[in-house]
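Entry for phenylalanine complex. Fields follow.
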Amino acid sequence: MSKLSAQSWSSQTMFILAAIGSAVGLGNIWRFPYIVGENGGGAFVLVYLLCIFFIGLPILWSEIALGRAGKANPVNAMLNLAQEAKASKGWAVIGFSGIIASILILSFYSAIAGLIVAYFVKSLSGDFANLSPSMAEGMFSGLLSDAGSMVFWHSLVIFLTLGIVAGGVKAGLEKAISIMMPGLFVILLVLLVYAASTGYFSASFSYMFYPDFSALSWSGVLIALGQAFFSLSLGLGAMMAYGSYVGRGASLIKSGLWIVGMDTLIAIMAGLVIFSIVFANGMAPNQGVGLLFQTLPVAFAQMPFGEVFASLFFAFVILAALSSTISLLEPGVGWLGQTFGLGRKASVWFLGGIAWILGLGTVLSFNLWAEFKLVGELNFFGFVEFVATNVLLPLGGLLIGIFTAWVLPKAIRERELPVAGWANALFLFTLRFITPFAILWVFIGGL
Ligand code: PHE
């Protein structure tokens, strides 16, 4: 078996779509609004946007560049590049920590995506009709307390992911993504129009964009940084793996701008919609994990053709989630295949099996294990989420940035990321001096 990636995207557009598919998912629609609410709104959003542009974007460019230049899964890509740069093989740690992070993320991601599937089924059966805010709360807590159903939905999502990655229907999924992206966008626009009709759109807008720094803590800043990585699928090799399938002709700079632009736009739209519903119904913005599940169904119950929009919305979110989960398997599956010659199916089942088992811990964290604290205040879900998102991703990203800025031969860097004149100097300065220190600063402050 060759240690190089054999696949490739059919075009630059296909790469951009798949990478946007990986980036846009529950992170934008479920996670972003609820952590904005938990961390007090505007100031958090501002820090998040700074993290996206000064840390996320340069690291994203670096990560896809390392993938295309290293031409392999994250472990072997780093080994190939370290050899070319005559640097230590130890850089492969980026690949290994990424594989661990990706399995941890897949484990809780699929449990939450399972809830979305459950809500899709509820929307089809008309369960949101005449739903009041308190009924929506009851519906959500009812589902959480039902460990059996949650295990079922979690298993279904893992199973769908494995089926897509193992069964070679990726081409089909790529087609689905190209319909899903515009579809999700249009539904969010419809929801924005609805949000405007509630009369609380401007309250929502100022909640998200008026920065009140007294509401933001250091740990909030770390959460914003972790979210920037999580939302852009950065720091664990997923983008590196996707980058390794990109042809020479594609512009990584342009692709990176598209990915960051769409990812940020969709998160902001989701936030504006959800907070309008929160304020219009006198709900609390800081209700946590349940925010999406307790707000949107109430809105669907009130709007004309609500059932139709609800079903479409949840269907698109399921697709958005699946286009993210499949990218989570990519680093590990590529490594097992290219290093041990393990077949795609076997690798997929092996890694998916681990994620499935770990995911049971997340499922139980919402019911039977809810009171069981693993470390400090964190239960099993909280701990897995914290370690993966706020520790492994920023550290992986830090190493990716340092390698690209300081170790990667200049010729390779400039070939992969050609930017002219002063823009190049600015990019290099940011990547060398701003990005790594910003990550370290936030990281140490937050811990
Ligand atoms: N970016 C995805 C989202 O926001 C989650 C993800 C993280 C996917 C890391 C792949 C890798 O939903």
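NOTE: The mean pLDDT is 93.
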